[in-house]
């Protein structure tokens, strides 16, 4: 049985049932963002090799921005009359993806895996933008802003994986492990 996220009240101009739909979409976005900032810190702590410092320093600003994104999503859920479930148990129980699978590894391997992570996240976020755009422009705007930032972060990652001819080392990879291997060459 699907959980009903319809709030007892919501912001003016949005029907309660529509707010429930927005809350449901935002709930998964909150989980994805909380998972991403933990994954980024995991990479930050476990990256090694000749590109260590570049990747180590590139990741922390992404962590900070993703944490801010999670806060914005949680606050939007609350404004809509919902409950922002930010606990690890909720994340693990409700997520539709597996844990990040790469441990201590070369910087380029981590970037290859992170490219796959960003691709999945961005695909889900674009679908969320489409869903909320039919209901509420304020929530859509919030997610579009996040989409731009996350696409830029993926571009930063991909700049390390692209050759001068414009070919992406991870272009055919569909898993983190496959992308990590492809990135290492």
Automatic annotation (TrEMBL):
Domain Ferritin/DPS, first and last residues per copy: 26-163
Domain of life: Bacteria
One of the record's GO molecular function terms: oxidoreductase activity, acting on metal ions
PROSITE patterns per the UniProt record, alphabetical: DPS_1
Pfam families registered for this protein in UniProt: Ferritin
CDD domains: DPS
Similarity annotation: Belongs to the Dps family.
Protein name per its UniProtKB record: DNA starvation/stationary phase protection protein
Organism encoding this protein: Streptomyces longwoodensis
């Amino acid at each position: 049985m699907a959980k009903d996220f319809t709030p007892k009240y919501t912001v003016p101009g949005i029907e309660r049932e529509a707010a429930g739909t927005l809350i449901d979409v935002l709930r998964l976005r909150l989980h994805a963002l909380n998972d991403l900032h933990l994954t980024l810190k995991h990479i930050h702590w476990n990256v090694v090799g000749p590109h260590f410092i570049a990747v180590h320093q590139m990741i922390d600003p992404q962590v900070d921005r993703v944490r801010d994104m999670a806060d914005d999503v949680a606050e939007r859920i609350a404004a809509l009359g919902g409950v922002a479930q930010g606990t690890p148990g909720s994340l693990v129980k409700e997520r539709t993806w597996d844990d990040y699978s790469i441990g201590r590894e070369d910087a380029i391997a981590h970037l290859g895996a992170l490219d796959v992570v960003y691709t999945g996240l961005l695909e889900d976020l674009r679908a969320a933008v489409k869903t909320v755009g039919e209901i509420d422009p304020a929530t859509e705007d919030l997610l579009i802003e996040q989409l731009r930032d996350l696409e830029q972060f993926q571009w930063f990652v991909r700049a390390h994986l692209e050759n001068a001819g414009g070919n992406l080392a991870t272009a055919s990879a569909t898993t983190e492990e496959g992308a990590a291997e492809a990135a290492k060459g």
